[in-house]
Write a structure and sequence with these properties.
alpha+beta, 307 residues, 46% helix, Glutaminase A, Beta-lactamase, 2 domains, binds 6-diazenyl-5-OXO-L-norleucine, EC 3.5.1.2
């Protein structure tokens, strides 16, 4: 194993004080109750060793981390040509929930699948005749990746659904421009459930390991994601995974990673390991502030930057 438990515990205690510089997300009311001082990390190596430190059993919702998972699913269902006819491949310097570029960019499609507009367009493509069928496909895919039976946090999903008026407006705009089809409320129900999928950092590290292993589950040896799709997902993690600070993150850390407003970060060090982090105190753009510190220290120590 590359990291001993004590060594990881030491890193967590070094990073934890940075949490006091951040704030938990408040725009989804149910996330307000999270403890800003929680911090947890897990590393899952491709030879199937797992280690963890901090509050590793605490569950949290995936939020935007789920965007990578749905992207992998629809890319395998429809292929790049179809998916990228609806959503672009370019980073944006705007916040994750911005509507600005949808109107100014021609053709009027979301710039990438990691911003909310792009993720909503991707979720709209999940296969299934009913919302329930789509949900089951998604959660089964996640279960295969984690090797666990995971579910979603109903309170968080409901809380987001009640307050998701910005996402609602993005959907109506995209429906008008033919980017999405079908009933907007049904799409929001599915999207808020997807964002509310709940797990701990150990499960998250396992998912990161599947991407790090080019889509092959290191535990079962099964291909869960094709090599090409895993490559596309990791590329988006590098260019857009940490929102409008993805550039700075690439320089300071250099690990393909995706964050969420609940404070989760999934990292994938190609050929080496998956990383799962939970630290709900966020910086101004929505990334876990202590989580970023942890990743910086890890990357430095192990020379894990891919650049
Ligand atoms: O749609 C939203 O706003 C949330 N469900 C997810 C946003 C998110 O996690 C952005 N993360 N940094």
């Amino acid at each position: 194993m590359i990291n001993t438990q004590e060594w990881l515990e030491g890193l967590v205690e070094k990073a934890r004080p940075f949490a006091s510089e951040g704030r938990v997300a408040e725009y989804i009311p149910a996330l307000k109750d999270q403890n800003p001082h929680d911090l947890a990390i897990s590393i899952y190596t491709l030879d199937n060793n797992s280690c963890y430190a901090g509050d590793h059993l605490k569950k949290f919702t995936l939020q935007s981390i789920s965007k990578v998972i749905t992207l992998a699913l629809v890319l395998m269902d429809y292929g790049e040509e179809h998916v990228f006819s609806k959503v672009g491949m370019e980073p944006t310097g705007d916040p994750f929930n911005s509507i600005a570029k949808l109107e100014t960019h021609k053709p009027s499609k979301p710039l990438n699948p990691m911003i909310n507009a792009g993720a909503l367009a991707v979720t709209n493509m999940i296969k299934g005749n009913t919302g329930m069928e789509k949900w089951h496909r998604l959660i089964e895919f996640i279960n295969h990746m984690t090797g666990e039976t995971v579910s979603y946090n109903e309170d968080v999903a409901y809380s987001e659904l009640q307050t998701a008026n910005l996402n609602r407006s993005l959907c109506y705009f995209m429906k008008q421009h033919g980017v999405i089809t079908g009933n907007v409320e049904d799409l929001l129900v599915l999207y808020t459930k997807q964002c509310a999928v709940e797990m701990n950092c150990v499960d998250l590290a396992k998912m990161g390991a599947v991407f790090a292993n080019d889509g092959i589950d290191p535990e079962s040896g099964r291909e869960l994601i094709t090599r090409d799709v895993a490559r596309v997902c990791k590329t988006f993690m590098v260019t857009c995974g940490m929102y409008n600070t993805s550039g700075e993150f690439a320089i300071k850390v250099g690990i393909p990673a995706k964050s969420g407003v609940s404070g989760g970060i999934m990292g994938s060090v190609p050929g080496k390991c998956g990383i799962g982090i939970f630290g709900p105190a966020l910086d101004d753009v929505g990334n876990s502030i202590a989580g970023l510190k942890l990743l910086e220290m890890l990357s430095d120590e192990h020379s894990w930057s891919i650049f």
